[in-house]
Amino acid sequence: MAAPITLYDIPGDVKETAWSPNVWRTRYALNYKQLPYTTTWVEYPSIASTVESIGAGPTSTWPSGEPMYTLPAIVDPNSSPTRTALAGSLPIALYLDRAYPETPRLIPEGTAALQAAFEAGFIKAVTPHMQMLIMPVGRERLHDASKEYYREARESEWGGKMGEWAPAGSEVRARHWEELEKAMGVVKGWLEVDGEERKFFMGDAPTFADMIVGARLMWMKTVLGEDSDEWKTVEKWNGGRWAQLLDDLQPYADVKL
Fold first, then answer.
1. Cα-flanking dihedrals φ and ψ of residue 220, to 5°?
2. Pairing of strands 5-9, 37-41
3. pTM of the entire predicted model
4. Which among 50, 39, 42, 37 is positioned nearest to 12, based on CA atoms?
5. If DSSP codes are grouped into helix, strand and coil, which group holds residue 103?
């Protein structure tokens, strides 16, 4: 039996689950493939040193030009001749498909470029509004050790003061919600471009594209709270399409510690 993979995630004050949208992509992937893993929790100020220490590289750069080290990251002790350390959800997905070919594929043969293009298109469509709405609320869910680091890092990345991005009850917040609903409607249109309704983006089985969307939805649900008025509104968008996607991904939503 394979030794457990180590998944690196960010802790927070969320009820009996995980919250990080990027790490949720990899958590879904590991659960879908039924690969054994454990979770190591890393506070924001320790992410760079932790990722460097395991031998994984940066995934992007900060506006200053400095390398950006992010999670998810994994260490797979089963690879040969030495263990494998990787950061970034797409490189991890590609690696897991290569390393464990007997498990269900995350990225069907010949679709890697399309999955990467979907990731870029989805992020471009939803990020300008989703980040403004959810990041300030998400900061309050973090442990004290991470709150200020998170605020400073996100303000350097996105500009302005986080507290002014989309204050509760403000017109700007309402506009962001309106634009985000429109953006998710565009994504639904991608799903149904051929006039067919399908459970997942490529049919009856989930792929990495579904996990990208599901991870962002899980972030919203856990940070806003499943009983919040804002989340309950999201559940109704596009005829309940996104609430249904989360339900369909629920078999792969275990949080293994």
1. -60, -45
2. parallel
3. 0.96
4. 42
5. coil
